[in-house]
Write a structure and sequence with these properties.
alpha+beta, transmembrane helix, 221 residues, 19% helix, transmembrane, membrane
């Protein structure tokens, strides 16, 4: 009987230890896998005005936010009447300075926008003189260049007469060495000279090789 009682006590103690160990294992698993790692949120600080510290001692005290610091709360308007100004200030002088407008040509330091001064208009040197002359005429065209530079060779033709036909066509008689030519205006003589114009006492001939024009007078003999 004595041995049986001791065995029963050992069994009860072993069962109690097993239950405690099982409970510890379950608690450890809950802490490792089932618990939240995020820290618990902290309550925001309660801002209490200096004059209303006694109101925070009540059981229904709530966080108080100053006006204008939270959305939907109107900002506090400060006094802007003359009663809030220093009574020693001369308001007449202040109003007089505020009514002044900047009219200089430099930059206005009291304005954020800079407007450059207008550039001075260019005055013509002839505008101050009285207009006592007649209408201004355009300048005369430059004289035409010489028909042939001094280095041009003379045209080897002699003009010794003209012939006028019934249809009004005028032809010139030209002599080059022993060759005689009858040419009209625009004709080419000797594959070198072009007849530009024909008059009674002279003709104009262009040297096609040297690109110059010369006037040949009428030769009587």
């Amino acid at each position: 009987m004595k041995a049986t009682s001791n065995d029963r006590k050992k069994t009860i103690a072993a069962g109690s230890l097993g239950v405690v160990a099982f409970g510890c294992v379950i608690y450890a698993c809950i802490q490792l896998f089932g618990g939240s790692s995020a820290p618990a949120p902290t309550a925001p600080p309660v801002i209490v005005p200096a004059g209303g510290a006694h109101a925070a001692s009540g059981s229904s005290a709530q966080p108080v936010v100053p006006g204008g610091n939270a959305p939907g709360v109107a900002a506090t308007k400060l006094a802007s009447t003359s009663s809030s100004l220093d009574p020693t200030l001369d308001q007449t002088a202040m109003l007089r300075t505020e009514s002044l407008e900047y009219s200089g040509t430099g930059r206005n330091i009291f304005s954020a926008l800079y407007t450059p001064p207008p550039s001075p208009m260019a005055v013509s040197k002839f505008s101050a003189r009285p207009n006592n002359k007649g209408p201004v005429l355009p300048p005369a065209p430059p004289p035409p260049p010489p028909t042939c530079p001094p280095t041009c060779p003379p045209i080897n033709l002699k003009f010794f007469g003209t012939a006028k036909h019934a249809n009004g066509l005028v032809q010139a008689f030209l002599l080059q060495g022993e060759d005689v030519y009858i040419a009209s205006q625009g004709d080419i003589v000797g594959r070198k000279y072009k007849i530009v114009s024909i008059a009674a006492n002279s003709i104009q001939v262009m040297d096609l090789q040297n690109n110059n024009t010369q006037t040949l007078p009428l030769q009587m003999n």
